[in-house]
Structures are given as structure tokens and as C-alpha cells.
Design a protein that fits this description.
Number of helices: 5
Radius of gyration: 44 Å
Distance between the termini: 53 Å
Helix content: over 70%
Shape: rod-shaped
Structural class: mainly alpha
Strand content: 5-15%
Length: 320
């Protein structure tokens, strides 16, 4: 798989390659299906260059240049994903050095796409390593069965075996690189989540401080209100028309008079106070009653679901 970054997102292409081989003594045929466009020219170049050293008496010798080309494709794919992950690491590092709180946003869908391609590469490399390992074991077994006794086995067969073993180890190393890419990407995703959580916690701390300041301001308002409330009530009470004060004159001293209907004020104030408290208590009781009935209805529905499930299980057991 080739993965590249574009302005529109990630572009990738799958190579679902299939190979069929037929071997006769000193003659090998290989059929390549769904290979990249440059595979034919590269194989022709490799075969013409190594034809003198390629032992066609070995049925598995033809796989050597083919696997070399496949390893080159794997290597390009793995390092292409590595470049994408490195760009993400550079992005987070640049924000971290520019700001102490490294407040930055990552494209999580893009990270998910990179992770998906990285997982695919790990899967393909695992299969390739197992296939190459099986080819190496089969090469030794088949060649030993063709040439009896084993002492007649030419050295070129051992060269092919060593080359296949090297290719198998190279593919495993690429798999380790792919797993490392996956771990690095997961570390960046974890860093992003932790950064967002840290930023949210700072926001919550700021909100808490603001709420504390508001609480202090409200406490100050409450203290000031309580301080002036008795005086306000006294001035409002004596400012009513139920009280009459006449200052002293030439032949008359100060006179203070209270209306006989002052009881109307106290009765009205007491009734309004009781009415307000009653309305508040009724509202509180209705709220609690509604919450209790909602909880009972939920429990009733849950009990009905359990009863239906239990009855269904019973009927099922009866039919059995």
C-alpha cells in the first residue's frame, strides 16, 4: 500500500498482487497479476543483471528478485506512513515550544486514517513474514528431496536459502518499524487527549475562580443588605400614613399619634407572608412528587421488561 498526503487528505493505493510459478529443470515461469506498473521492467532488469548468478535448477531461485521488489514496495509504504506520523510530531512539538500550554488542535479523523493504514501494513507484513518463512523451509525440503544424497546438493542452493532467510528477516524488521509507527501515532493521540483534558481542567479552574468571585460579591451584597434592612424596615414602617408626627409650635408641644387601624397592616402583612410560604411549600412538594412518580414509572417499565424477558425464556424452555 502506498500512502501519500494531499491537500484533500490521504491518498493511497492497494497492490493486491498474486503470483503463480511453474518450474522444470533449468526452466522457470512466473505469472504476475495486479502488480504495479513498474514491476515488469524492474523484474526484467533484475533478471538480466543476476541471470548468471541465478540458479534456475532451484525451484525457489526465481522468488529472490521478486521478493526483493516486494520488499522495496513494503519499505516505501512503511516510510511513507512514518513521514506522515513525523509531520504530526513536528506539529505538536512546534506548538509546545511556541506556547507553554501548547494549546493545539489535531485532526483526529486524519490520525484515524493514518492509524488504519498503519494497522493494514502490520497485517500485511505479518503475512509476508510467515509466507517467506514457509518458502524458506519448503526450499530446503524440496531441494533436499530432489538431490539425493544431500551431498550432491550444489552450493547455489545454499545461497538461495541464505538469501531467502535474509529477506525473511528484513520483512520482520519492517514489521517492527510498522509497529513502532503505530506506537508513535498512539502516543501522539494520547498526548492530544491529555492536552485537551489539561486545557479543559484549566478552563474549569478558571470557571471555579470566577464563581468564587461571584460568590464573594453576592456575600458582600447580602451583608450590606442585612446591615441596612432593619433601618429600611423601620423607615418604611414609620413612613406609612398610620403614624402622624406634629412638631412643636408656639403654644403646642411635639405630638405623636398612631392610627387605630394599624392592625390592618399587620393582618395584611401576616396573611401575605403565610400565602407566599404556602405557595412555595406546595411547589416544593409537587416537584418531589413528580420526581418520585417519574422514578416509579421507570422502575415499573424495567420490571415489565424483565417480566417479559422471563416469560419469553419460560416459553422457550417449555417448547424445548
Amino acid at each position: 500500500k502506498d500512502v501519500n498526503a494531499t491537500n484533500a487528505g490521504l491518498s493511497y493505493g492497494w497492490y493486491e498482487m498474486t503470483f503463480f510459478t511453474r518450474w522444470e529443470r533449468n526452466h522457470s515461469i512466473i505469472l504476475c497479476i495486479d502488480t504495479p506498473s513498474n514491476t515488469k521492467s524492474m523484474l526484467e532488469t533484475a533478471l538480466s543483471r543476476d541471470l548468471s548468478t541465478l540458479n534456475l535448477m532451484d525451484p525457489f531461485a526465481i522468488y529472490v528478485p521478486l521478493i526483493d521488489h516486494i520488499i522495496m514496495l513494503y519499505d516505501r509504504s512503511i516510510w511513507g506512513i512514518r513521514d506522515l506520523i513525523r509531520n504530526v510530531e513536528k506539529l505538536s512539538k512546534s506548538h509546545k515550544t511556541r506556547e507553554k500550554n501548547y494549546d493545539f488542535e489535531l485532526d483526529f479523523p486524519r490520525l484515524h486514517e493514518i492509524s488504519r493504514h498503519s494497522i493494514h501494513c502490520c497485517e500485511v507484513l505479518t503475512v509476508a513474514a510467515e509466507t517467506t518463512s514457509q518458502l524458506t523451509a519448503e526450499q530446503k525440503e524440496v531441494c533436499t528431496r530432489i538431490y539425493q544424497p544431500p551431498e550432491k546438493l550444489p552450493r547455489s542452493f545454499d545461497t538461495t536459502h541464505k538469501h531467502l532467510s535474509f529477506q525473511m528477516q528484513f520483512i520482520r524488521n519492517l514489521k517492527f518499524r510498522s509497529e513502532s509507527n503505530q506506537q508513535r501515532l498512539q502516543a501522539e493521540i494520547t498526548l492530544a487527549y491529555n492536552t485537551i483534558a489539561e486545557r479543559d481542567s484549566k478552563v474549569m479552574v478558571a470557571i471555579g475562580k470566577a464563581a468564587k468571585n461571584d460568590s464573594t460579591a453576592m456575600k458582600t451584597v447580602a451583608v450590606v443588605t442585612i446591615t441596612y434592612l432593619p433601618a429600611t424596615f423601620t423607615s418604611a414602617l414609620f413612613g406609612m400614613s398610620f403614624f402622624d408626627f406634629s412638631p412643636s409650635r408656639e403654644n403646642q408641644s411635639n405630638e405623636w399619634r398612631v392610627s387605630e387601624k394599624i392592625w390592618i397592616y399587620w393582618v395584611t402583612a401576616l396573611l401575605l407572608t403565610l400565602l407566599t410560604m404556602g405557595v412555595w411549600l406546595v411547589w416544593q412538594y409537587s416537584e418531589r412528587l413528580g420526581a418520585r412518580s417519574h422514578g416509579l414509572s421507570k422502575r415499573r417499565l424495567r420490571a415489565e421488561e424483565i417480566q417479559k424477558y422471563a416469560s419469553g425464556m419460560y416459553l422457550y424452555d417449555m417448547t424445548r
